[in-house]
Amino acid sequence: MEIVRAFDAIWAARWPILDGIANTLLISGLSILFGTALGVGVGLLLSYGGRIVRFFVRVYSDFLRGTPVFVLILACFYILSVIGLQLTAFQAGIFALMLFCSSHVGEIVRGALQAIPPGQTEAAKSIGLTFRTTFFSVLLPQALRQILPTWVNTATEIVKASTLLSIIGVVELLLSVQQVISRTYLSLELYFFAGFVFFLINFVIEKAGRIVERKIAIPT
């Protein structure tokens, strides 16, 4: 049976596949982590930066959000090397996904911060709080409740976008499965297996996000 053959093929190639899963998790985790950190900065500049700063940050955000991830990955891998910045395929892939993530997180943060009544910032200033203290103690706890659900969607999109790194030779889950397919020709079964693994990764992210969302929800 084809299913039995597929399980045999997966078991025979378990170590390369596990390496692919590990690379997918590492790529996604680093891209989300650094992209979120950069995105918070983008959101702050869009909300509180000067007019000129907001203009350039807006161009940055709109350009990246309007650029297909596929094109962004190729640009980071090939164009950066032309200008003298030598990155491995792994590094270029993470850099591309980080930039893409930051542009979306920046818009999420901007929207959440602008939804907070300005009177709260003014009240914090009136009692002598610095902007940093105001952000972490007053603004961020409120914004986080609005940011989290959309951030989870962005995180799952980054996990799915990690499959595109195979075009520059990064051996993540999809490419490792494709290598098994090239030897066994069990396309349907092995692609289904890869899709199921991606589903599990994103399911865990979504469930973790919901747990945190319940923890920070305002009691009713």
Question: What are the defining features of this structure?
Answer:
220 residues, mainly alpha, MetI-like fold, 0% strand, flat
Structure description:
- This protein has one domain: MetI-like fold (Orthogonal Bundle), CATH 1.10.3720.10.
- The longest helix is centred in the N-terminal third of the chain and has 35 residues.
- With 220 residues, the protein is mainly alpha-helical.
- The model has no long low-confidence stretch (mean pLDDT 89).
- The radius of gyration is 21 Å and the shape is flat.
Q: Helices and strands in order, then pairings?
A:
Layout: H1 2-12, H2 14-48, H3 51-66, H4 69-82, H5 89-114, H6 118-126, H7 131-161, H8 173-184, H9 187-216
Helix pairs in contact: 2-3, 2-5, 2-8, 3-5, 4-5, 5-7, 6-7, 7-9, 8-9
Element-by-element helix/strand order: HHHHHHHHH
Assess the beta-strand content as a share of residues: under 5%
**Distance, first to last CA:** 55 Å
Which geometry do the CA atoms define?
flat
Query: Structural class of the secondary elements?
Result: mainly alpha
Structure summary:
Helix 6 packs across helix 7. The protein has 220 residues and is mainly alpha-helical.
